[in-house]
TrEMBL record:
GO biological process: proteolysis
Gene Ontology CC: one annotated term: cytosol
Organism name: Croceicoccus naphthovorans
Entry annotated with the keyword Glycoprotein: no
Domain of life: Bacteria
Annotated GO MF terms: oligopeptidase activity; serine-type endopeptidase activity
Keywords: Hydrolase, Protease, Serine protease
Descriptive protein name: Prolyl oligopeptidase
Length: 689
């Protein structure tokens, strides 16, 4: 059979996640891959190294502020599913903190006969004693949410409980929640993407069926949600949103006159409330009240004026990105707004203090330069905040900073997890098909021979305005760099490294430019003499799995290893699989737009496979519990390869969801399999095989 057309899908039955037939296929397809890769003499060493990293007691216990104490979630060899625990700042600062366990997830799972995975908490401010705690069975996105009392360290008897689903929850007060879920249990309250379409007010002691509807979206939306925002001065603002697609959202605000439209541009994000002002981030140019604000900016709007006239807003500029800068995230302390961003893919953090006239004053903070800086937690009762600083060869540091004084101190430095002696990092640029310069980072041995023989992994993502930044990957360092490999991180278009325009330039049928960017980096690596197609492999997950799937089918001449992780590969049935309908704003509406259909029918990896082509042998990985991209993308691609007598490796973990695994053992197995595959493909068989 030649390439598939839009109506052909001989493997649609593999979309039945847990049918007997599908699971039998998974078991049969996993078996030869596990036998080969686990049979490689290098596998066990790689597994032991990966597990030692994942369960190391020397990892940083990343803390979060909560009412004068520090909270942390911790996994190790004895606590595979983890401990939610707390300590004090003084105890943490001592280097040997005394932890109090709040909840033992392993013990809870054992007692309840569930494979519970902790997915976070949503606590009622300002006391933050009562929390809605999310638990996933096996690592799925869908969670069961139960009310938990931190003071008693127990679930509240007869408290709020939201059944399993892709739930959206916000506290109104101690006795009421705004809830988005599948209330009827038949999907009627969900969008086509599988997320909440209806928001209801649920009172304490009230049955789910008796909750009162307060907001409704459309079936074609991605999701509807309600959020009660609070600042540190006791002001509140209730905002409802309709995500029309992944990047366009409409907002309504609760006012004394009822629910009214909020006149924000659709490509904007409401981020919170501070100093009686709504904080928002723009992803499109916006002119309001006679003032033009560029895309990528952060703005504030006076809450009182907003409630009085939500149709005529008067925003104030907080921060505007420079030509090489991009917004990443924000948080707030007691009276400072923190914004983290990038400047030529290097981390920056800025602090802003609200002025009485409605403006903002920027505050300098003493932080490391030339590293990736990430906001970890901000204290709402002081101006202290935690950040992480790291680089490819710089182990993570935990830094405690003060947004008022601008001073900072290093509280923890993770010990080196791999030998970086003789390794160097370079930032280089490749030229894409339209002449755009594409930055990439290259980690390699300083004395590397430039004769095309270096085993090299090129990693990419390129979507959803997600930035790829330098990070300290102990797994890549120990399992790959120590084995003589080189590591490359590509900052292709589609990401957020240079703001919304960098992302929006490759949406929909413009996506080929992102694929060209990635191929251009590969060609640049080969032209430099570092590596060659025989020794060059690529790796990516989720949208990055689509990227590597396309690169395998479009440019089989460039690579000898292709790692396709939790991927999107069937771009024709995308909207009908998993949460795929929610991403049509990124990829195009294939079933409504003939141009989008034509574009993806040519590039959809599942449809682009052809008999008789000398493709690199890929390693396709997924999870049965992945209810986001859905395992059928990987399954169908592998089944099609088998039909065409094309060789491949395949591994589907039963748990883990849209992640490598559900605990350190599963994580270690996953990465040992990945790097065993890469070594076999790019370096050759082990001695004695």
């Amino acid at each position: 059979m030649s390439t598939l057309n839009a109506t052909q899908d001989p493997y649609v039955w593999l979309e039945e996640t847990t049918s007997d037939r599908a699971l039998a296929w998974v078991e049969e397809t996993n078996a030869p891959t596990l036998a080969t890769l686990k049979g490689d003499p290098r596998y066990q060493t790689l597994y032991d190294e990966a597990f030692a990293i994942a369960s190391s007691q020397d990892r940083i216990a990343w803390p979060s502020f909560r009412k004068g104490e520090l909270y942390n979630f911790w996994t190790d060899a004895q606590n595979l599913r983890g401990l939610w625990r707390k300590t004090t700042l003084d105890s943490y600062r001592s280097g040997k903190p005394e932890w109090t366990t709040i909840l033992d997830i392993d013990a809870l799972g054992n007692a309840e006969g569930k494979s519970w995975v902790y997915k976070g908490v949503n606590c009622l401010e300002p006391e933050e004693r009562l929390c809605m705690l999310s638990l996933s069975d096996g690592g799925k996105d869908a969670v069961t949410v139960r009310e938990f009392d931190i003071a008693t360290r127990s679930f509240v008897d007869g408290g709020f409980m939201i059944p399993e689903g892709k739930n959206q929850i916000s506290w109104e007060d101690a006795d009421s929640l705004l809830v988005g879920t599948d209330f009827a249990g038949d999907g009627s309250d969900l969008t086509e993407s599988g997320y909440p379409m209806v928001v209801k007010r649920l009172k304490r002691g009230q049955a789910m069926a008796d909750a009162t509807e307060v907001f409704r979206g459309e079936k074609s939306d991605v999701a509807a949600a309600g959020s009660v925002m609070r600042d540190h001065e006791g002001h509140t603002l209730t905002v409802f949103s309709r995500a029309i697609d992944f990047f366009h959202t409409t907002y309504h605000v609760e006012t004394p006159r009822g629910l009214l439209p909020l006149a924000l541009p659709q490509q904007s994000e409401v981020r919170g409330l501070m100093a009686n002002r709504l904080i928002m981030k723009l992803s499109e140019d916006w002119t309001a009240n006679g003032t033009a604000f560029p895309s990528g900016s952060v703005l504030s709007i006076d809450r009182e004026a907003l409630l009085a006239d939500p149709a005529n807003l008067k925003p104030t500029l907080v921060w505007q990105p420079g030509p090489s800068q991009a917004y990443e995230a924000m948080a707030s302390t007691r009276d400072r707004l923190l914004i983290s961003g990038l400047d030529n893919v290097r981390g920056k953090i800025w602090a802003f203090a609200p002025k009485a006239d409605g403006g903002w004053t920027q505050q300098a903070i003493d932080l490391p330069d030339n590293q990736t800086l990430s906001l970890i937690s901000a204290d709402e009762d002081s101006n202290r905040f935690f950040i992480s600083a790291a680089g490819f060869l710089n182990p993570n540091q935990l830094i405690l900073a003060d947004a008022e004084t601008g001073k900072s101190e290093v509280l923890r430095t993770m010990p080196a997890m791999f030998d970086s002696t003789g390794l160097v990092v370079e930032q280089k640029f490749a030229t894409s098909s339209d002449g755009t310069k594409i930055p990439y980072f290259l980690v390699h041995r300083e004395d590397v021979p430039m004769n095309g023989t270096t085993p090299t992994i090129l990693y990419g993502y390129g979507g959803f305005e997600v930035s790829m930044t330098p990070s300290y990957s102990a797994q890549a360092g120990k399992l790959w760099l120590e084995n003589g490999g080189a590591w490359v991180l590509a900052n292709i278009r589609g990401g957020g490294e240079f703001g919304p325009a960098w992302h929006q330039s490759v949406l929909g049928t413009k996506r080929q430019l992102a694929f060209d960017d990635f191929a251009a980096v590969g060609e640049d690596l080969i032209a430099s003499g570092l590596t060659s197609p025989k020794h060059l492999g690529i790796m990516g997950g989720s949208n990055g799995g689509l990227l590597t799937g396309v690169e395998m089918t479009q440019r089989p001449d460039l690579w000898n290893a292709v790692s396709i992780q939790v991927p999107l590969l069937d771009m024709i049935r995308l909207s009908k699989i998993g949460a795929g309908a929610s991403w049509q704003g990124e990829y195009g509406f294939v079933n409504e737009d003939p141009d989008a259909m034509a574009f993806w029918l040519e590039r959809s990896p599942y449809h682009a496979l052809k008999p008789g082509v000398d493709y690199p042998v890929p390693f396709i990985t997924t999870s049965t519990a992945d209810d986001r991209t859905h395992p059928s993308h990987a399954r169908k691609f592998a089944a099609r390869m088998a039909e065409l007598n094309l060789p491949f490796y395949y591994f589907e973990n039963t748990e883990g969801g849209h992640a490598a695994g559900a605990d350190p053992k599963q994580d270690a197995q996953y990465w040992a399999l990945q790097y065993t595959y890469m070594l076999r493909q790019l370096k050759g068989a082990a001695e004695g095989e």
